[in-house]
Amino acid sequence: MSWLVTGGAGYIGSHVVRALSESGLTPVVLDDLSSGVASFVPEGVAFVQGSILDRDLVERTLREHAVAGVIHVAGFKYAGVSVQRPLHTYAQNVEGTRVILEAMAAAGVANIVFSSSAAVFGTPDVPLVVEDTEKRPASPYGESKLIGEWLLRDQAVATAGSDTPLVHTSLRYFNVVGSADPTVYDVSPHNLFPIVFEKLLAGETPRINGDDYATPDGTNVRDYVHVGDIALAHVAAAQRMIAGEPIEPAYNLGSGDGLSVRQIMDAMARVTGIDFTPEVGPRRPGDPDRIVATGELAARDLDWKMRHTVDEMVRSGWEARRNAG
Ligand SMILES: NC(=O)c1ccc[n+]([C@@H]2O[C@H](COP(=O)([O-])OP(=O)(O)OC[C@H]3O[C@@H](n4cnc5c(N)ncnc54)[C@H](O)[C@@H]3O)[C@@H](O)[C@H]2O)c1
């Protein structure tokens, strides 16, 4: 059974592709390589190079591969940049999702798993975020992901009672790190792990942006999860849909336990064997003290659990990045 993975040449999407294959499903990748890497798509997997904004291409791909469901990972993920490029962000994340849903309706494809984000919550003022925590996105990126969730919800209402009522879920990722394949790594220039890796490879000292936050060691606390665990949750969601089991409109893929930037830096030094003391710079505007979510709902329905320690997250990410040269 074929499942389309949009953005399947990206960091998370290519992990989802591998997890689908291992589960016995057949992934098909649609990716325009705007931030993806062609070599991240495993050999033997059907790869269509093109944009999710190309409605005819999406519909043709769904039909030609007899796709049973879509894992819609493609998107523009740079929250900070989205403030300067709102129109681009909305085109990719909102119009892109609308086009996918339109092509699915035309081709009679009823299942979709959507890559959403912790950014839909903005700066939550609760110690542990749950699915119903108030949504107050603080960037065009967060807004675009929340609108994506609404598009799925509204299309499900509109197609209820039709031959192909939309079955959907949105998986909200927090800080996705590590690697489950030594050839795939996060190429983002804006995320903590790749930034630290690049600094260490260049022989430079990584920096902490502010150590006067209201957290135990003064540095930001975030919810770090391993990309391999994230990928498995998508397979579980797809299998739930195939089995016709009920599925929630959204799941927070959180660990229930945060790690501070300083704790991550300590793990980086421990795992890489590079002895460094991070520099401390000023705060970045808009960085909340702490964002941590429970993953209880996902644990109940999607076999979600943390299968990796922080050192494993660092080690796997570091090795994959070093393999890239
Ligand atoms: N990395 C994280 O920590 C994180 C956290 C929350 C949410 N997300 C979301 O998860 C998804 C994947 O993130 P990632 O870290 O793998 O990023 P990524 O940039 O590595 O992957 C995105 C992929 O989508 C492709 N793409 C972008 N626009 C496209 C288009 N118009 N048509 C076809 N393909 C297109 C890119 O080429 C790339 O391969 C994104 O939607 C992102 O917003 C990521």
Structural features, described:
By secondary structure, this protein is an alpha/beta fold. 40% of the residues lie in helices and 17% in strands. The protein has helices spanning 11-23, 55-64, 79-84, 86-107, 140-159, 192-201, 227-242, 261-272, 296-302, 310-323; strands at residues 2-6, 26-31, 46-49, 67-72, 111-117, 167-173, 175-177, 207-209, 221-222, 224-226, 250-253, 259-260, 279-281. The chain has a seven-stranded parallel β-sheet with strand order 3-2-1-4-5-6-11, sandwiched between helices. Strand 5 (111-117), helix 5 (140-159) and strand 6 form a beta-alpha-beta unit. Helix 2 packs parallel to helix 4 and helix 6 crosses helix 10 (310-323). The longest helix has 22 residues, at 86-107. It starts with a strand and ends with a helix. The model has no long low-confidence stretch (mean pLDDT 97).
